[in-house]
Amino acid sequence: MPTSTQTTETGPAGTPQPRAEDRPSPTTKAVVRPGDRIFSTATLLAGILILLTLAGVALFLLAQSSETIEAQISDPSSITGGNGFFAYVWPLVIGTLVSSAIALVVATPFALGIALFTTHMAPRKLAPALGYVIDLLAAIPSVVYGLWGLTLAGNLTGFYAWLAQWFGWIPLFAPDADGSVSNTGRTLLTASLVLSIMILPIITSLTREIFLQTPRLQEEAALALGATRWEMIRMAVLPFGKSGIASATMLGLGRALGETMAVAMILSPGLLTASLIVSGNQTIASEIAQNFPEAAGLRLSELISIGLVLFVITLLVNMAARAIVAKTSVKGS
User: Fold this and answer.
1) What is the pLDDT of residues 289-313, one digit of tens each?
2) Number of folded domains in the chain?
3) 189-221: pLDDT as tens digits
4) pLDDT band at 1 (very low <50, low <70, confident <90, very high)
5) Residues 240, 206: contact at Cβ < 8 Å?
6) Potential cystine with 137: which of 72, 175, 201, 217 (Cβ 3.0-4.6 Å)?
7) 317 occurs within a structural domain
8) Biased-composition ranges for Polar residues (predicted)?
């Protein structure tokens, strides 16, 4: 029989190996298909477009705020309130942060509980229906939440009076100087409760998907070692989803910071107060929504300037979220 002229070398295990000159060169470039090149270019352009859009928004807000900056330098008394821009925007920043923080504190435990129930506790026939109902909350328009909040506010006046009676020594629940609370219920606490309902589906949906990704073998191993259902969740599910929980919480916070219509419909105009159950306090978004239609000149520039402040706050929150997620991911690994 004719023999092949190609020789082989013997590998470590005695298996034939191709000769060195027949092996592909390590410097040989991989073949790039046209589809891969188009896809990579498209994704690169999409990322650049996002950065350009973000930069464009920032430049627009900064340019439109130039009149306010000039007034702050030359004549601070011309700005609303008569004490300069920072004295005007500071109460709005406090109201925004306080309402968002309260909403986050109220919504997060409920969201985690609902997500754990639908993924590990609920019957299989009930879990999808319950998840669908929770997701529907995100589709309700903000104005509907605002109308519902107005109804809720009228029913909370008695509860606020009770808080002032028994917990009035706490500044957050202190009554007015005359010893009364809001007779309409349109307070920052009411707005915060409505915000908590609005961010609930966001946090719930994201954490539910994270919990579903928990390795099944880890859950079964915990149960096989004698752990109860709650111990399995505490040892396997929650540690696995720490970074996802942080991300979902920060996204809910971002939604609460920028919510406009519902908060604007609920809050009554007033000055900054430490109490959550009296009229007063405003957020940046509601201040813009209530005054923008009639604004012109310097007043318009002021509203755009506080919009720039809200933009910066949201950017800082997202940067903090990225840092928290990165830290929890490193610890989890």
Assistant:
1) 888 888 888 999 999 999 999 999 9
2) 1
3) 999 999 999 999 999 999 999 998 988 898 888
4) very low
5) no
6) 201
7) no
8) 1-10
Q: Are 80 and 87 contacting, i.e. CB atoms less than 8 angstroms apart?
A: no
- Kindly state whether residue 127 falls inside one of the protein's structural domains: yes
Domain range for 214:
91-302
Q: How far is the C-alpha of 271 from the C-alpha of 120, rounded, in Å?
A: 47
3-class SS string, the chain: CCCCCCCEEECCCCCEEECHHHCCCCCCCCCCCHHHHHHHHHHHHHHHHHHHHHHHHHHHHHHHCHHHHHHHHHCHHHCCCCCCHHHHHHHHHHHHHHHHHHHHHHHHHHHHHHHHHHHHHCCCCHHHHHHHHHHHHHHCCHHHHHHHHHHHHHHCHHHHHHHHHHHCCCHHHCCCCCCCCCCCCCCHHHHHHHHHHHHHHHHHHHHHHHHHCCCHHHHHHHHHCCCCHHHHHHHHHHHHCHHHHHHHHHHHHHHHHHCCHHHHHHCCCCCCCCCCCCCCCCCHHHHHHHHCCCCCCHHHHHHHHHHHHHHHHHHHHHHHHHHHHHHHHHHHC
Establish if 206 belongs to a structural domain. yes
**Whole-prediction pTM:** 0.83
Both tokens of 13, joined, read: 């295990």
pLDDT of res. 200: 93
102, pLDDT greater than 60: yes
* For residue 78, pLDDT beyond 70: yes
